[in-house]
Amino acid sequence: MYPIAQLVKISLPNYFSNLPIPDSFGGWFRLGFKDWLALLPPTAATAGVGYLAYKAFCPKARQSSSKINHSVQLSNPKVVDAIDVEDIVEKAAFCRCWKSKNWPYCDGSHADHNKETSDNVGPVIVKKSK
C-alpha cells in the first residue's frame, strides 16, 4: 500500500508541479521544444480518458457504429420492399450491404464496402424457375 500512497501523495504532485504550464495565454507561444515534449504525456493521458468516457457515456457514439443503413429510406422505422417473383425475367440480384444506389437491386457497391471494412457481404440472387 505504501508505493500507491507514495505515488498519489508525493510523486504525482511533484510531477504536475514541475510541468511548464504558462501563467498567461501568450506564455504558450514562448514554450520551447522540451517544454512541449514534457506536456505530451499528460495531454495524451487526458485525451485517452476523455475518449473512453465519451464512448462509455454517449449512447449516440455507441449507436452510430452499429448502424448499417446510412442512405435508404431513413425516414421509415423499417425498410421493407416486396418484389413479385413474376416480375423477374430470369434472375435478379438484391443488395444486402445497404450501399446500392439502385436499391433494392445490387449495383456492386458491396465490393468497395468489403475492401474498406474487410467484410464479405454480397447480394441475394433470386432465379426464376423454368
How would you characterize the overall build of this protein?
The radius of gyration is 28 Å and the shape is elongated. It is mainly alpha-helical. The longest helix has 25 residues, at 33-57. It has helices spanning 2-17, 33-57, 59-66, 110-117; strands at 91-94, 124-127.
Relevant terms:
two-stranded antiparallel ribbon; 2 strands; 130 residues; single chain; mainly alpha
Strands, helices and their partners?
Layout: H1 2-17, H2 33-57, H3 59-66, E1 91-94, H4 110-117, E2 124-127
Antiparallel strand pairs: 1-2
Structure summary:
The protein is built from 4 helices and 2 strands, in the order αααβαβ. It is mainly alpha-helical and 130 residues long. The longest helix has 25 residues, at 33-57.
Averaged pLDDT, please? 86
Topology pattern, helix = H, strand = E:
HHHEHE
Structural class by SSE content: mainly alpha
* Low-pLDDT residue intervals, each spanning 5 or more residues: none
Number of strands: 2
In spatial order, strands of the major sheet run 1-2
The helix count comes to 4
Radius of gyration, in angstroms, nearest whole number: 28 Å
Helix fraction?
40-55%
Could you tell me how far the N terminus lies from the C terminus, measured between alpha carbons in angstroms?
79 Å
Characterize the biggest β-sheet: 2 strands, antiparallel
Which geometry do the CA atoms define? elongated
* % residues in beta strands: 5-15%
